[in-house]
């Protein structure tokens, strides 16, 4: 896997960066709608300034992440931005869609924490200078970042799998409404096994790369089936919501690719298994 690490890290960075660049463009193409949305959530003071600041953070952070330059500084800023955005706009447990956005944002933060821990990879402008030293790879900070990244990435899939388990009828009906009318029971059971199994793999750090690969294999077709939408910049709220789901899913795939490239870190069952050999 080490041979593929530069390529995987590059692809992971690009998918994570794409979300922020797209969100920044979305704000530029719809400034009035964005500011109205911000005001509706209580940001009524300095709305224009906050709008401009959010656009700059998303563009600057996305570009830095994409090219792999001053990556840790950019990622730290994006994590702080995501925490604030999630707390303001998606902390609404009574709204199922906002709960999903909340969990997806945490998963994206998990992917960003992986980048913070391991750097941008060899295929970056920062190159070797931004890579962690061998001593840093065994340090407490690196261990904590990797563990938090795994927990945040896995949390989304554990929540989604448990929701399916607790609402089998509603889940099957939703799948059928999206065209999955054949072998619905089989797909339902498979989705639960993949999501909960993959989440536990990440949380425990046990066969982590296999778990990340399985979740990527699940999320790609799930995005194509359940979030089919135009990706052009429109003002329709329903279309915009689906667009954000697509871009967030791609960013989560980027974080999972980082986990696939780097593994579980030292505080994991995988690490204990290697030591016991």
- Which class best fits the helix and strand makeup? mainly alpha
What is the terminal separation in angstroms?
Answer: 19 Å
Which spans have pLDDT < 50 for at least 5 consecutive residues?
Answer: none
- If you average the pLDDT, what whole number results? 93
Question: Given the structure, what is the number of helices?
Answer: 12
* Radius of gyration (Å): 19 Å
The secondary-structure element order is HHHHHHHHHHHH
The largest sheet, given as strand count, sense and whether it forms a barrel, is: none
Count of discrete domains: 1
Number of E strands: 0
Percent helix among the residues? over 70%
Shape: globular
Strand content: under 5%
Task: Characterize the structure shown.
- By secondary structure, this protein is mostly helical.
- The chain contains twelve helices and no strands.
- The two termini are 19 Å apart.
- The model has no long low-confidence stretch (mean pLDDT 93).
Topology, please?
Layout: H1 5-29, H2 31-40, H3 47-67, H4 71-89, H5 96-118, H6 134-137, H7 140-166, H8 168-177, H9 184-204, H10 208-226, H11 237-262, H12 269-275
Helix pairs in contact: 1-3, 1-11, 3-4, 4-5, 5-7, 5-11, 7-9, 9-10, 10-11
Question: Which properties best describe this structure?
Answer:
mainly alpha; 77% helix
Summarize the structure.
The chain is an all-alpha fold and 277 residues long. The chain is 77% helix and 0% strand.
């Amino acid at each position: 896997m080490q041979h593929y690490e530069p390529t995987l890290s590059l692809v992971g960075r690009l998918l994570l960066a794409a979300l922020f660049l797209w969100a920044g463009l979305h704000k530029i193409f719809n400034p009035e709608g964005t500011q109205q949305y911000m005001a509706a959530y209580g940001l009524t003071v300095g709305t224009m300034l906050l709008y401009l600041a959010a656009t700059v953070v998303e563009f600057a952070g996305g570009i830095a992440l994409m090219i792999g330059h001053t990556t840790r500084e950019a990622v730290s800023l994006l994590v702080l931005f995501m925490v604030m955005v999630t707390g303001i706009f998606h902390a609404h447990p009574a709204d199922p869609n906002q709960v999903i956005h909340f969990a997806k944002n945490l998963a994206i933060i998990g992917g960003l924490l992986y980048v913070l821990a391991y750097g941008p990879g060899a295929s970056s402008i920062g190159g070797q200078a931004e890579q962690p030293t061998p001593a840093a790879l065994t340090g407490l900070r690196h261990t904590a970042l990797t563990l938090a990244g795994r927990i945040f990435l896995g949390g989304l899939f554990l929540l989604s799998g448990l929701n399916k388990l607790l609402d089998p009828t509603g889940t099957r009906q939703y799948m059928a409404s999206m065209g999955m009318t054949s072998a619905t029971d089989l797909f339902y059971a498979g989705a639960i096994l993949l999501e909960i199994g993959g989440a536990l793999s990440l949380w425990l750090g046990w066969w982590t790369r296999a778990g990340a690969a399985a979740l990527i294999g699940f999320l790609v077709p799930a995005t194509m089936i359940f979030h089919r939408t135009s990706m052009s910049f429109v003002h329709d709220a329903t279309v915009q919501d689906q667009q954000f789901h697509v871009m967030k899913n791609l960013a989560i795939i980027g974080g999972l690719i980082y986990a696939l490239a780097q593994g579980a870190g030292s505080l994991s069952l995988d690490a204990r298994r290697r030591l016991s050999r």
